[in-house]
């Protein structure tokens, strides 16, 4: 009987009082599912309460300085509901991937990461006061229930950077384009067809550049080319795989073109996973 009352209260009437939330910690009513994984009603309400407190205290009362009962304030708070759900969807995807990859961590690692966060954001007392004022949270609760999501995201990002298999198909494609360049096919036409950079429509033309304007790996490869018309091997940067062509030398400047085959980075992967998630 009691279970039925709370079920109706949550799903029919939208109960979000403290008693209901406490019951939902014991009986894990789902707020929604992400690819079949439940996000508990208690967790959803915890995030909602913390985020709403932040938006109210920091943004509405602080930056905007508007009446909390105004239509503008109500619109801001209403819009925040979607942001909360989007964040929980993202966090659930991250946790599932961490579990899938069997990424482990220790309490000491989490504590160290949190201590570094505290140092970056003003120290113990300031963090404690800000958490209480803007989120209504204690330091320990913030660390174990909220900061841990940021920590896991960082762990997963590190795993992606070390995972060579993630971009195996991208590297294969880049090598296929490189083979076409070496076979003498027109560089500009190949750039228009295959490059994923904004310069593709211009045949990969970067115009004249000087040292210091490019990422180090690209710059080093370009300056190793000594005669106009020469092309590089594959050059890996944070953006992906480049094939670089030296077009002209003018004093300290180099005119270059390039073909970029983008690698899939962590943020790109996460954005794609969020878009295709079944919620």
Automatic annotation (TrEMBL):
<dbReference type="InterPro" id="IPR046357">
    <property type="entry name" value="PPIase_dom_sf"/>
</dbReference>
<dbReference type="InterPro" id="IPR027304">
    <property type="entry name" value="Trigger_fact/SurA_dom_sf"/>
</dbReference>
<protein>
    <recommendedName>
        <fullName>PpiC domain-containing protein</fullName>
    </recommendedName>
</protein>
<keyword id="KW-0697">Rotamase</keyword>
<dbReference type="GO" id="GO:0003755">
    <property type="term" value="F:peptidyl-prolyl cis-trans isomerase activity"/>
</dbReference>
<dbReference type="Pfam" id="PF00639">
    <property type="entry name" value="Rotamase"/>
</dbReference>
<keyword id="KW-0413">Isomerase</keyword>
<dbReference type="InterPro" id="IPR000297">
    <property type="entry name" value="PPIase_PpiC"/>
</dbReference>
<dbReference type="InterPro" id="IPR050245">
    <property type="entry name" value="PrsA_foldase"/>
</dbReference>
<feature type="domain" description="PpiC">
    <location>
        <begin position="160"/>
        <end position="248"/>
    </location>
</feature>
């Amino acid at each position: 009987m009691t279970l039925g009352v709370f079920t109706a209260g949550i799903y029919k009437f939208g109960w979000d009082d403290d008693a209901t939330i406490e019951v939902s910690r014991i009986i894990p009513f789902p707020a929604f599912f992400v690819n079949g994984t439940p996000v508990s009603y208690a967790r959803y309400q915890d995030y909602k309460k913390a985020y709403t407190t932040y938006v109210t205290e920091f943004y509405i009362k602080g930056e905007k300085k508007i009446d909390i009962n105004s239509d503008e304030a109500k619109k801001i708070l209403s819009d925040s509901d979607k942001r909360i759900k989007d964040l929980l969807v993202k966090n659930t995807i991250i946790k599932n991937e961490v579990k899938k990859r069997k990424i482990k961590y220790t309490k000491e690692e989490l504590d160290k990461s949190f201590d570094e966060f505290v140092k970056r954001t003003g120290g113990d007392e300031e963090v404690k006061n800000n958490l209480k004022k803007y989120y209504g949270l204690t330091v320990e609760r913030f660390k174990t229930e909220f900061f841990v999501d940021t920590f896991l995201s960082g762990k997963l990002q590190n795993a992606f950077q070390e995972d060579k298999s993630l971009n195996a198909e991208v590297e294969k494609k880049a090598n296929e384009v490189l083979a076409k360049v070496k076979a003498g096919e027109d560089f500009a036409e190949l750039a228009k067809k295959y490059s994923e950079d904004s310069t593709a429509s211009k045949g990969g033309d970067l115009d004249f550049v000087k040292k210091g304007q490019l990422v180090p790996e690209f710059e080093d490869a370009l300056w190793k080319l000594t005669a106009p018309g020469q092309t590089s091997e594959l050059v890996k940067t944070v953006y992906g795989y480049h094939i670089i062509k030296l077009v002209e030398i003018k004093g300290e400047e180099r005119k270059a073109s390039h073909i970029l085959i983008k690698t899939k980075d962590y943020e790109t992967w996460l954005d794609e996973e969020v878009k295709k998630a079944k919620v």
